[in-house]
């Protein structure tokens, strides 16, 4: 862990000494009003700050952080998949990225603090929807303390591109953290106690359509009292190996319409989400974009259906307004929730940030998280 801190400190120092003002600063603010039309309103705010700067040998220093604030502590309903992908406990500051990378037309590499949401499930159609499962599938996030918004961990990500194909391989510390100091700090790399997470995917793009297939292997402790599961307090924690496979497609039906299909399966553990499936339609109408998606998740103790109808409207040059309706039904509860999301982005200089940093949190749908329910 100390070695990791020294390496990252050196990276930051190198970047800082190489003309700090030549870098790109970015700020993205997202605010959201939620209601179940019965219990009032919850106001959620997310601030994402980012910085990137060239360093040496064509490398790039990337840094990003998140800050979260909301007015309501209790969830509106028992929704296992979480209808809002930005809602989280109040968090003044947490690193979501800090490291060094290099990107070319043929490949990209990154080492440092990072999370899964930076690298996977970032395709155009899934990025429209505001629910969590359209981002990181619950088969991967539920009952697994991985580096998933708003936490992060030390990791490596590499991509190789050729023609229409892309191969991606990532390795992360098996447990994500958000503290800067203390035992549970974000600089930890302790596979023995935290476990380790490996992910890989093969992606193909053709004529506006995108196809993805991936596999994840996580060895280590599982979380207690996670979504859809309530472990007895007397049960001792054991190391387990979770294996997750997923595939999804964004099939272009016309110049203005795409079909979204998703499926994922989890094996190797008796907890969490065993299967997940989703299907939806995304429509482009001028500069606006809308869609409807239906998600199904099979947790160990419960099953849940969720549907979302949303429309995204650009405004104020760098902003957008996005209303959404969510219909949720599981073995415990059912109901309707709605939200109105507004996002605005500021970048300095005004040119676009590099791909490894720009919009890294995907504020359009943000960094997804399947929130635990006690």
TrEMBL record:
InterPro entries assigned to the protein according to its UniProt record, in alphabetical order: OprB_sf
Keyword Magnesium applies: no
Keywords: Signal
UniProt-listed Gene3D superfamilies: Carbohydrate-selective porin OprB
Signal peptide start and end residues: 1-22
UniProt similarity note: Belongs to the OprB family.
This protein's name: Carbohydrate-selective porin, OprB family
Organism: Phocaeicola coprophilus DSM 18228 = JCM 13818
Lineage of source species: Bacteria, Pseudomonadati, Bacteroidota, Bacteroidia, Bacteroidales
């Amino acid at each position: 862990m100390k070695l990791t801190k020294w390496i990252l400190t050196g990276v930051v120092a190198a970047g800082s000494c190489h003309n700090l003002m030549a870098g790109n600063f970015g700020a993205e603010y997202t605010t959201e009003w939620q209601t179940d039309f019965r219990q009032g309103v919850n106001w959620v705010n997310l601030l994402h700050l980012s910085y990137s700067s060239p360093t040496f040998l064509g490398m790039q220093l990337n840094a990003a952080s998140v800050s979260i604030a909301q007015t309501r502590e209790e969830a509106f309903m028992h929704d296992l998949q979480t209808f809002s992908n930005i809602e989280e406990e109040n968090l003044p500051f947490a690193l979501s990225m800090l490291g060094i990378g290099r990107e070319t037309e043929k490949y990209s590499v990154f080492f440092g603090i990072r999370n899964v949401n930076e690298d996977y499930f970032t395709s155009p159609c899934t990025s429209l929807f505001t629910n969590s499962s359209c981002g990181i599938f619950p088969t991967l996030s539920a009952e697994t303390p991985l580096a998933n918004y708003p936490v992060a961990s030390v990791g490596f990500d590499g991509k190789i591109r050729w023609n229409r194909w892309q191969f991606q391989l990532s390795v992360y510390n098996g447990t994500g953290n958000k503290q800067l100091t203390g035992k549970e700090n974000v600089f930890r790399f302790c596979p023995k106690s935290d476990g380790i997470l490996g992910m890989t995917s093969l992606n193909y793009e053709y004529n506006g359509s995108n196809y993805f297939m991936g596999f994840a292997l996580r060895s280590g402790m599982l979380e207690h009292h996670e979504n859809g599961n309530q472990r007895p307090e007397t049960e001792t924690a054991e190391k387990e190996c979770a294996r997750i496979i997923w595939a999804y497609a964004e099939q272009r039906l016309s110049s203005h319409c795409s079909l979204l299909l998703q499926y994922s399966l989890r094996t190797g553990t008796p907890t969490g989400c065993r299967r997940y499936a989703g299907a939806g339609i995304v429509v482009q109408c001028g500069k606006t974009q809308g869609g409807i998606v239906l998600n199904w998740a099979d947790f160990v103790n419960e099953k849940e259906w969720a549907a979302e109808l949303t429309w995204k409207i650009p405004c104020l040059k760098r902003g957008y307004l996005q209303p959404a309706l969510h219909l949720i039904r599981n073995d415990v509860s059912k109901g309707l929730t709605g939200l109105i999301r507004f996002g605005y982005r500021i970048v300095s200089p005004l040119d676009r940030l590099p791909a490894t940093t720009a919009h890294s949190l995907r504020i359009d749908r943000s960094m997804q998280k399947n929130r635990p329910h006690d």
